[in-house]
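Lecture 7 notes: from sequence to structure.

We start with a single chain of 79 residues. Read the sequence below before looking at the structure.
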Amino acid sequence: MHLEIITPEKKVFEGEVSEIMVPGSHGRFQMLENHAAIISTLVNGTVKVKTTSGIETFELKGGVVELLSNKVIILAESV
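Now the structure, written as tokens:
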């Protein structure tokens, strides 16, 4: 899956990941390869992504996430 994490100031992360855990408005949820399309609002919390080099975490200050055809975009207020 291709992931981009973007804030109004800069692109924080871009790369291939195998797993993403995000703080959704109605609770944390996970997205894996070939996940159904989804759009969700996000609350303050930790985004965890699993890459080939390990697990990376980002402290998010709200935003939205969209997943479509194995491409994930997180638009965050700040990271």
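The chain is about 0% helix and 70% strand. Keep this in mind for problem set 3.
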